[in-house]
Specification:
mainly alpha; 15 helices; 0% strand; globular
Length: 338
């Protein structure tokens, strides 16, 4: 629900307060000539850092520390590409905490997305926020993941059925269908985490969760892979509205490589051939993109005084980090012997 904000704000830009739209005059000025001229920019970044953005960043940092502490032994024991696969829960939990903080500290961004027929709309925003934080803590600490992963997946599928799919039918377009498949891949990854957990589901239930999760993630990877070739200057990973900054060299090549990698990952999954190795490589590539491309994009967004711009920048960073976790969860669903 929360990740629909970026698309919603693009469609309703004129309805947003000026605070959410204006750009900081310092960002439009000429490059600074010395250190002294940089100080106002850094000061403005901290002074105008909104409460919502602060809460989201604090939640992400807290989940990062908790997740690293919980996963350190698993990462240390892993060998080769499995060290990247071991990051799946960490990449998944951090964004959940970030999105949960958004629901609790910035409900004004989420309420317009709640279906109008739902009673107590603000209540559901807070309820989902608490549920996301609970799921984040569960997945980060690897406690009761069989339930948190299962329930998170169900919640994602409900969001698709109640919000995104009706929106795609009413106003079809590339972005809304991307959101539909993205949310379904998130739900599918949650089910894979629930099945693969130490206390996870067993027998037929485990097999069913993994099969559904693999299929949903593969379908999303196919769609996203094709979109990277059709729109080769957009931010890579999850192809939404924002474009890659012009200062990034080889923008088209980055999107082509990402698109091809996603298609290969989908093919290896559906054919059940080297899916673990391919998934680990593709997940690692997307994680690298998060650090190298989305990191600077996030910093620029946080330097803007508009709360909406800051929230959107954090959402893009966390969204793609979570998709990296999705691909790594896909890799973890395949035995090491493949």
């Amino acid at each position: 629900m929360h990740r629909f904000w970026g698309f919603w704000s693009q469609q309703n830009r004129d309805k947003l307060p000026n605070l959410f739209r204006r750009r900081h005059f310092l960002l439009k000025s000429k490059p600074c000539a010395d250190r002294e001229s940089m100080r106002p920019i850094m000061l403005a970044m901290f002074v105008e850092f909104s409460r919502t953005a602060t809460s989201m960043c604090a939640a992400g940092i807290a989940l990062f520390l908790i997740g690293v502490w919980s996963a350190k032994n698993e990462i240390a024991r892993a060998r080769g590409l499995d060290k990247i696969v071991a990051l799946s829960s960490l990449c998944f939990a951090i964004p959940l905490g970030v999105f949960g903080a958004l629901h609790l500290s910035g409900p004004q961004f989420i309420v317009p997305i709640v279906p109008p027929y739902m009673p107590w709309r603000l209540f559901w925003v807070y309820f989902v926020g608490l549920a996301l934080i609970a799921a984040a803590l569960s997945i980060a600490t690897k406690i009761a993941v069989r339930w948190s992963g299962l329930l998170f997946g169900i919640m994602m599928f409900l969001f698709v059925a109640m919000i995104h799919f009706p929106g795609a039918l009413a106003r079809p377009g590339r972005i809304i269908w991307t959101i539909v498949f993205r949310e379904m891949s998130f739900g599918g990854a949650g089910w894979i985490l629930a099945a693969n957990a130490k206390d996870g589901w067993r027998g037929q239930a485990r097999s069913t969760l993994i099969i559904i999760g693999r299929i949903l993630i593969a379908l999303a990877a196919i769609l996203f892979g094709v979109e990277h070739f059709l729109h080769p200057t957009g931010l890579p990973g999850v192809p939404l509205v924002k474009q890659m900054p012009a200062w990034i060299p080889g923008r088209v090549l980055i999107d082509y490589v990402t698109g091809a990698a996603l298609l290969v990952a989908a093919g290896s999954t559906l054919l059940n051939s080297r899916a673990r190795k391919v998934g680990a490589c593709v997940g690692g590539w997307i994680l690298l993109l998060v650090l190298a491309i989305y990191g600077p994009v996030l910093i620029v967004a946080l330097s803007d005084p508009g709360t909406g711009v800051q929230v959107e920048g954090i959402n893009y960073f966390a969204d793609t980090l979570m998709f990296a976790g999705v691909i790594l969860a896909l890799a973890s669903a395949t035995p090491r012997s493949d």
